[in-house]
Each structure stands twice: as C-alpha cells, then as structure tokens.
Amino acid sequence: MRDYDLIVIGAGPAGEKGAAQAAYFGKRVAIVEKAAVVGGACVNTGTVPSKTLRETALHMSGFRQREVYGVDYTLQENVQMADLMHRKRTVIEREHATIEENIRRHNIARIHGAARLSSAHDVVISGPEGDSTISAEVILVASGSSPLRPDHVPFDHDKICDSDSILDIGTIPKSLAVVGAGVIGCEYASIFASLGVPVTLIDGRTALLGHIDREIAAVLLDSFRTRLGIKLFLGVPVAAIRVLDDGVLLTLDNGLDVRVEKVLYAAGRQSNTAQLGLEEVGVVTGRNGVVVVNEQYQTSVPNIYAAGDVIGFPALASTSMEQARVAMVHAFDLKYKTRVAPLLPYAIYTIPELSSVGLTEEQCREKGIDCEIGRAYYAANARGQIIGDDTGIIKLVFDARSLTLHGVHAVGESASEIVHTGLMVMQFGGTINAFIDSVFNFPSLSEAYKYAAYDGLGRVAKRRNG
Questions:
Q1: Percent of all residues in the chain with a pLDDT value above 90, rounded to a whole number
Q2: Cys bridge to 253: 231, 237, 273, 307, which one at CB 3.0-4.6 A?
Q3: Phi, psi of 136 (to 5 degrees)
Q4: What mean pLDDT comes out for the span 306-316?
Q5: Rounded CA gap, 97 and 101, in Å?
Q6: Minimal CA–CA distance to 139: which of 281, 40, 317?
Q7: HSE of 202 in the Cβ direction (CA atoms, 13 Å)?
Q8: Domains in the chain, please, with CATH?
Q9: pTM
Q10: Does the structure show a pLDDT above 80 at 222?
Q11: C-alpha span between 339 and 5 (Å, rounded)
C-alpha cells in the first residue's frame, strides 16, 4: 500500500485547489512545497503583490484624485518601496492564513522540502532534516514558473531586475526602463508611471499586447502616452545593456541610447521543472520546461498530472485552479467537474485596467463570422463621469444575424469586474438582448452594457436599411 493516494508538488493556486479537490472526496493527500510559505508565485511574488502595489500607487500618488479633481499629489523624495509595500505584507499574510486553513481543514499533509521524482510513483523530498521518500498512486505537478533570465542580460537585482526582484528595490527609482511590453511589463510600467517615475517601455514587437482586441489595446496605448507620459519604443529591440556607476545604459537596435537608473527586464517566464526529475521518469517537457499534457492534464506518464503555470499558457491563477480540479476528477474518476470552462476571462491590471472574454473583432473576421460591434463609453455613463474615467469603453462583439454574443472587451475602471456580466450571458449562449431586457443599477458602470447593446442593434438596423 502506498503512503498516499495523491502527492502534489507545489502549494500555489493549482496545487492547493487540486489537493483540496481530491481530499474533499476522501483521498489521502500530501502537498510538498520547497518554500517556507504556501501560495506560490501568485501570492508571494506575482499576482497579489503587484496588484496590491498597483492599488497603493493609485492611492498614495493621488492618481485618481488628479484625474477627477485636478489635485496634484507629489510623493516625498526618497520614498521607500517598503512604504508602498506595507499593505502587500498584510494581504499576503492573510492569504497565507487562508491557504493554510484550507489545507488543515481538508486533512492534507503539508511537507516542507524540495521534491524530485525517482519513479512514476515515488517522490524524494530534500528537507531540513535530510532526504526522505514518499509514494502515491497519483502525482500532480504544480510547481509553477519563474521569471526567464536570458544569459546576455546582466541581472544584479538592483539596477537590472526581473519581475520578482523589482519588488525588493530600496527606493522608487528616478527613472525606469521596462524591456518587454507583455502583461507584466505593461502592468509595472503603468504602476511606476502613476507614481511620477519617468518610464520608457521597450519591445521588439510592433504591437502592444497582440492577443487583445486592437481597439481596446489602442485605448491603453494612448493612455500610456498621454495620461501617464510613458515613452514607447515598439518594434525596436535592445541591442546592448551596460551597467554604469549611476545607472544603466540601453542601446537600442536603431542606435538610440536610453539611460535610466533602473531596468525591469520582463522577458517572459519558464516552468519550474529543472530539478524535478521529470524526464528521467518519462514525462515529456517542451520549450522553457513547459510540461506537455492532454485535455485531462495527464502527462506522458498516465498517473502523473500537471496543472497551472508549469504547463504554460494561459498561466492565470483562475485557470490554474480549474485545471487542477479537473485533473484530479479525472485521476480518481470522481464524476464531478470534467472540464475547464471554454470561456476564460482575461484581465490585465494596467492603469487603466482591461479585460476580455471570448472572440475579438479581428478573430471573428479571421473565422469568417459575420459580426457586428456595439460600444458604450464611460464618458457617457453617469458612474464613469462621477469617478472621472472618460476613456473607458465596453465593446460587444456579436453575430450580426442571430445577435449571439461572441466577445466582451473592456478598458477602464473595474474592467476586470464588469467583464463577468458578459461572460455569464455567453456561458448560456445568450444574445445582446439579455442586456436590453435587464435592469441595471443607476449609476453603475455595468449599465453601459445596455447602451452598448442598443448601439449594436442600431448598427444592425443600419445594415438592413442601407
């Protein structure tokens, strides 16, 4: 008899929820985490800290007050990052307590140490008191990911940081260059710019956030330039990086030099699989250590599953949790949650934030779907006027004939929240008439859905009459 029914490697969002799912149905579960605390990158270095910093920055810099009332808040000189991160510590401690309680409540054995597979069923744990081995029928790899650090970049985590070490710098930099205009790069660029830091955003790609609806991305781009004063160099790779006594000199591919105090190099992430011994037991991995899985999140070794950042895109906490739950239902034939929902909401916590679900206008065109668009602007919405957000948009993408909703895309205050209204209509195969038939609170940003739907119907009518 094996020691456990399930061993989970990693106590991040996927690991915790996968372990709890199996334990809820009476399985004997152990979760192995090499860090001293639970929560993974989501709680400790990534999602929670960066979003907490965002809210703190908006509050302490008076960014929202400037937008509404024209009040100029100037941060004191030499403000310590620790001052901005105080709230982060409180939030993280509460998250740790919540996760620990969930593990305790489900009677999951929590083991501290670095895990390595010695066979398809055996896990060697290197802990504070030496090595030990435990076994299980099923193994779930949920070890997460870490910032990718290219060899040619001289990371010192002081002048040149990655997305983990940027949170540990002593003072707010006098100037910052962000290399990489992906999700992480854009989020941090807008956060530091809101604090009054001169920010330069650099990327070799010509399009900002290429997977986002182009109209919504354009609103964000314009906000970066006009409201936040971010200098953008898109389609211009960095040719060389040189550390100076008083900062960093970046030489761009076009010959331009950019001199700043600090650099955030956000080059993507890599799966934490290098030390797990996966290939030795037959688990196939791909580029940057990504574990290859099937639709049930099984690896090439049937009793070994993987979920979360370790399997790559979309690498979101929300989807990671669901992937792990589905994996454990399949592993133990629990007759419960058999798939991850096909509609995955996506949020980017820039300033302003944006969010989307479903097909973009461009994707509909590519698929040959005869779509129409409905838009509503925060500037014409009472709540939008009250909070001073005159750039926000809700955009509906729907079938021009059946009116079936295919996508919702929003940029502006609370975009990550209001997108869920559209998601639920799509989940049940609804049309934009759902918004017209509904009553929304007034004043509220969600009311914009009704007027976006009216706008869409007006466009359909023009087609028919034109």
A1: 82
A2: 237
A3: -155, 160
A4: 94
A5: 6
A6: 281
A7: 25
A8: 4-147+270-331 (3.50.50.60), 160-267 (3.50.50.60), 352-465 (3.30.390.30)
A9: 0.92
A10: yes
A11: 22
Total residue count of the chain as it appears in this document? 466
> How is residue 196 written in tokens?
């009054």
Give, to the nearest 10 degrees, the angle between helix 47-60 and helix 86-105. Answer: 150
Q: What is the pLDDT of residue 128?
A: 84
More confident residue, 60 or 176: 176
Rg (CA), the chain: 24
Task: Output the 3-class SS for 54-78.
Answer: HHHHHHHCCHHHHHHHCCCCCCCCC
Cα separation, 403 vs 372, whole angstroms: 8
Residue 79 has pLDDT above 90, yes or no: no
Contacts of 464 by beta carbon, 8 Å cutoff, 6+ apart: none
**CA distances (Å), origin 121, targets 37, 203, 248, 271, 310:** 25, 44, 49, 21, 19
Q: How many helices (H) and strands (E) does the chain have?
A: 14, 22
DSSP 291-334: BP--TT-B-SSTTEEE-GGGG-TT--HHHHHHHHHHHHHHHTT-
Kindly give, in sequence order, each residue whose CB lies less than 8 Å from that of residue 352, ignoring residues fewer than 6 positions away: 219, 220, 223, 389, 391, 392, 411, 412, 413, 415
- 12-45 confidence digits (pLDDT tens): 999 999 999 999 999 999 999 999 999 999 998 8
Q: Which two tokens stand for residue 197?
A: 């830091």
Amino acid letter at 226? T
Q: State the Cα–Cα distance between residues 193 and 264, nearest whole angstrom.
A: 13
